[in-house]
Design brief:
alpha/beta, D-Maltodextrin-Binding Protein, domain 2, six-stranded mixed sheet, five-stranded mixed sheet
Length: 300
């Protein structure tokens, strides 16, 4: 039996996966509970949640770590496709009030305040958590109709930012800190200005879950153990993050300390997801559907 897990070493709030993988927490639990079974865990490090979603729909990945927006897009696909079903199993990292996101500008930019963005071009991956954060902040400062927003993936936008070819970039960690550490950019506005939580979670293919509920529970316990490890061993965890992600140690330890590691799904989290679901409807990424049908591991 093979269990395929998709994760993103480039997204810090899904770094719980890096500890599970590096420390072989899930594998060890499987060996303990199924000593006579040959179970292999296959880890897939992908560049984005969208790539993991595509692999899950084609039945190549069973469990996926991703940010809240691809999480919602995954469940929307489960709602609309005849041959695919999924459920949100748990959360990994949480950025309270929008922590771990920011609007950044080139290091030598003349843009000094949020109001200096008027008439400027801002890059962000459309339909992402950073896009949502950006729109909330622009509306807050009444700049919504005064900027041009362009869709660019992270590698392209990072390169253009370093070349001073875009005015600003709305993005999530660890990119913001990494670009700052490398003297490419500086933070103009912190994501907490949005006052909306930034979440990352785990989605599982429904049929696989129904057939492997005990294994799914072992996975949740592995995630809880990883979170305890991160909280109790921040320096060792940062070393693991750095090794597994190729981001430097200073970036890793700085970013990780701002993440709330909590796998539970509470009422506030569900309200946050519903708010972001409405945003995805507004930007024509999805149509309305009953999100609560796709949340499994919910706790009051």
């Amino acid at each position: 039996m093979e269990i395929h897990i998709g994760y993103q070493s480039v997204t810090s709030q899904t770094w719980g996966a890096l500890v599970i993988k590096n420390q072989k927490i899930f594998e060890n639990k499987l060996k303990e509970y199924y000593p006579n079974k040959n179970i292999k865990v296959v880890w897939h490090d992908e560049i984005s949640g969208a790539v993991i979603n595509t692999a899950m729909i084609s039945k190549k990945i069973h469990i996926g770590f991703m940010g809240d927006m691809p999480l919602l897009l995954n469940t929307y696909k489960a709602n609309t496709l005849n041959n695919y079903e999924s459920i949100i199993l748990a959360f990994d990292g949480k950025g309270k009030e929008g922590k771990n996101q920011s609007i950044i500008v080139p290091l030598k930019s003349e843009i000094k305040s949020i109001y200096d963005l008027k008439g400027k071009r801002i890059s962000t991956p459309i339909g992402s958590s950073a896009h949502f954060m950006l729109m909330k902040i622009l509306k807050k400062y009444k700049l919504y109709n005064d900027v041009e927003i362009v869709h660019q993936d992270v590698p392209i936008a990072s390169q253009l930012l370093s070349q001073n070819k875009i005015d600003a970039f709305a993005i999530w960690e660890p990119y913001s800190k990494y670009l700052e550490e490398n003297k490419i950019s500086k933070v103009l506005v912190d994501g907490t200005e949005s006052n909306s939580d930034y979440l990352a979670g785990i989605v599982v293919e429904r049929k696989w879950y129904d057939n492997n509920k005990n294994i799914s529970e072992l996975f949740i316990n592995s995630l809880k153990e990883a979170h305890i490890f991160i909280k109790n061993n921040p320096k060792k965890a940062a070393e693991i993050f750095s090794k597994e992600s190729d981001f430097d140690y200073n970036t890793s330890i700085y970013v990780a300390k701002n993440i709330s590691w909590d796998c539970s799904i509470n009422k506030e989290d569900i309200e946050t997801l519903i708010e972001k679901q409405k945003f995805l409807i507004e930007v024509n990424q999805i149509k309305n559907f009953d999100l609560n049908k796709y949340i499994l591991y919910a706790k009051d």
